[in-house]
Design a protein that fits this description.
This protein is α+β, with helices and mostly antiparallel strands. The protein has a single domain, classed as 2,3-Dihydroxybiphenyl 1,2-Dioxygenase, domain 1, CATH 3.10.180.10. The protein is 21% helix and 40% strand. It is built from 4 helices and 16 strands. The strands form 2 sheets. It has an 8-stranded mixed β-sheet with strand order 2-3-4-1-13-16-15-14, with helices on one face. A hairpin with a 2-residue loop joins β3 and β4. α1 runs antiparallel to α2 and α3 packs antiparallel against α4. The radius of gyration is 17 Å and the shape is globular.
């Protein structure tokens, strides 16, 4: 589901120190960088600019291979002085074997490591949790743009809606909205990227970059739209064998 997630940060080196500390126990080391961003696999941070404000109130959960790895993530971050937002432990209100821990990054975003107690079909990004002004409005948007990618609503829990599937899910809940987060969804081919963008515009959503090749690497083909709360949502095909 997720190709990558990018948080925009006010101070790049401060963010690097946090993420290197927290992510090393998850096996994520040696980030790629060009001096304006750092990237650990599917998760990246980029420096804020006038046209790219700081990400606020995001919740990104990363896959851990065991409860012990969750523990190590939390100990590394809190031991380095970063803020605890939930000690390691079972969260059975999510499901019986859910084991997670939470810390706050320097910009105030909630970063989690989670182990489900079983193998999931997801990648590095287990789930992203968006607070939105209106679940109904956000749901209509995400159902529209994710339908061409073959993603659907899979769970409705109280006031929350989840799209995708366990281990690779996007959750929506009403609250003070998440701002300036970039979420890129994987598309199987260029035509699917075109369909994602066309579906969004046909439904009246805001364009943020038409389909086409981007400079990130040869074959990178993406399109961008804005969700109802202004987050930058992308579909991308890398055209790699």
């Amino acid at each position: 589901m997720f190709d990558h997630v990018t948080l925009t940060v006010p101070e790049l080196e401060e963010a690097r120190r946090f993420y290197e500390t927290a992510l090393e126990p998850l096996g994520l080391v040696e980030p790629a960088t060009d001096g304006q961003f750092y990237e650990w696999g599917d998760l990246s941070v980029s420096v804020a600019r006038a046209d790219r404000p700081v990400t606020r109130r995001a919740h990104v959960a990363l896959s851990a291979s065991s409860p012990e790895q969750v523990d190590a993530f939390w100990r590394a971050a809190t031991g380095a002085g970063y803020r605890n937002n939930g000690a390691p432990g079972a969260r059975r209100h999510y499901h019986e074997s859910y084991y997670g821990a939470f810390v706050i990054d320097p910009a105030g975003n909630n970063i989690e490591a989670v182990h489900h107690g079983f193998e999931t079909a997801g990648g590095m990004i287990d789930h992203v949790f968006l607070r939105v002004r209106s679940v109904a409005t956000a749901r209509a948007f995400y159902e529209t743009v994710l339908d061409p990618l073959g993603e659907r609503v899979w769970a409705e829990v109280e006031e929350r809606v989840g799209l995708g599937s366990r281990g690779r899910s996007l959750w929506l809940e009403e609250g003070e909205p998440t701002e300036n987060l970039h979420i890129a969804f994987a598309a199987s081919d260029n035509a699917t990227v075109d369909e994602f963008h066309g579906a969004a515009l046909a439904a009246g959503y805001r364009d943020n970059g038409p389909p086409g090749e981007r400079r990130y690497h040869p074959g990178y083909y993406g399109a961008f739209v804005l969700d109802p709360d202004g987050n930058n949502v992308e579909a991308v095909c890398h055209n790699r064998d």
